[in-house]
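Sorry to interrupt, but I need a hand with the structure work. Go ahead and set the record down below:
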Amino acid sequence: MSPSNPTSRGASALSLEQQICYAMHTTVRAFDAVYRDLLSEHGLSYPQYIALMSVGEHGPLTVGHLGELMHLDSGTLSPLLKRMEAAGLVGRTRDPEDERRVLVSVTSAGRDRLADLGDVPRQIAVRSGLSRSQLIDLQRTLQAVTSALQNADVST
């Protein structure tokens, strides 16, 4: 079998459809499309939705802590928060305990928007075609994979 022969053993191992990363990529793109559709009527992008939920759930957060929760760096997060502040969804203030830090909090308009978004998780679940228990199992599996990959020894 030559290396250029698509039926060789190596080619099947490198088949796009055999790659877990490709399956994850296409799933994420499909989720993005559904979220884009559901959130567009609320004037939000998916990262704004996640930011609003995080700040709404955890109360005022520093930009750094919010970035950690969302897995975003401040260069990506700051413009996102600026747009959300301009839309009246969040407020940003200097931390009185440490002027170097900026606190992000949900405004009353942001809380109203969160209330309007209450049905999004159910709609996502319905569109996924999975049962509640399948979704819970999938979430646990994805969290385990994420943790393993983040903690993987890159020298192996």
